[in-house]
């Protein structure tokens, strides 16, 4: 008999002691308030005002065409990011590993 088969003969159910999930009992370090108004976020307003209210793709330096975002949160044109990810699967800005991106609708 194989050792793994013998271990099945002496099987005992596991006892659940303590916390059941890895995140139980862990408090967040910070809370993000998504209900703030523009007056409370002057930095965001100033950044958008510097480009006349438009966000430019950091790859082609043009207005976004079919904007997409990576899992690390950077925003690019869909074509620019697709071309960049064909070469390497890393974010062009922060070099974080990227497998997929998501369409953004304004």
TrEMBL record:
Residues 57-95 form the RING-type domain. This is E3 ubiquitin-protein ligase RNF125. Keywords: Metal-binding, Zinc, Zinc-finger. GO terms for molecular function: zinc ion binding. It comes from Drosophila mauritiana (Fruit fly).
């Amino acid at each position: 008999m194989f050792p793994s088969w013998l271990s099945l003969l002496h099987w005992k159910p596991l006892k659940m002691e303590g916390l059941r999930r890895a995140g139980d009992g862990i408090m967040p370090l910070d809370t993000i308030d998504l209900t703030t108004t523009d007056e409370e976020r002057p930095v965001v307003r100033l950044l958008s005002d510097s480009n006349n209210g438009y966000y430019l793709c950091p790859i082609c330096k043009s207005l976004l065409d079919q904007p997409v975002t990576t899992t690390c949160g950077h925003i690019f044109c869909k074509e620019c990011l697709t071309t960049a990810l064909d070469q390497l699967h890393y974010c062009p800005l922060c070099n974080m590993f990227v497998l997929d991106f998501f369409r953004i609708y304004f």
